[in-house]
Amino acid sequence: MSTPDLSAADLWLPDPEEHDFPAAADYLDLLVDAEQVERAVTALRQAGTITKKAKDIMRASQLPLLPADNIHVRHNIHKVRDGKKLSPVLLVRGQPLIIADGYHRVCAAYHLTEDLDIPCRLVSP
Fold it and tell me: Which of 30, 34, 81, 104 is most exposed by smallest CB count within 10 Å?
């Protein structure tokens, strides 16, 4: 399923969508207290967008790669193939790396090509 000629500009919006931040807060709320969630989401909103390789995000997060036929992963792959752009992912440094929002998008990108640069916002807790 590899598509080596894709670039980050072909696949990704320049900035996260507004609804990504509350989604990140909902996930982080399961891991840390409310004050830490608020600090992390504020930092994610203010952080610049950088790029990291799909394979590196997956390794650092220590999460399993979801299969390409997972409904959400498949939806993101279809979006890309339809010429629609994906939202950058929201990451919080930790051991392991926390994908606060965008796990399915990272998995979709990995299935397209594991060396793909993924725009992300990366903050420390």
Answer: 30
pTM more than 0.85? yes
Structural domain count, the chain? 1
| Token reading at 25 | 């807060």
Q: Would 49 be classed as within a structural domain?
A: yes
Cβ-based burial of 79 (10 A; exposed 0-12, middle 13-18, buried ≥19): middle
Helix or strand holding residue 91 (H, E): strand 89-92
Per the structure, the complete domain to which residue 107 belongs is given by 8-123
3 lies in some domain: no
User: Rounded CA gap, 95 and 63, in Å?
Assistant: 12
pLDDT at 3 over 80: no
Sheet holding 98-101, edge to edge: 50-53, 117-123, 89-92, 98-101
Q: What is the pLDDT of residues 104-122, one digit of tens each?
A: 999 999 999 989 899 999 9
Please report, as a single letter, which amino acid is at residue 56.
D
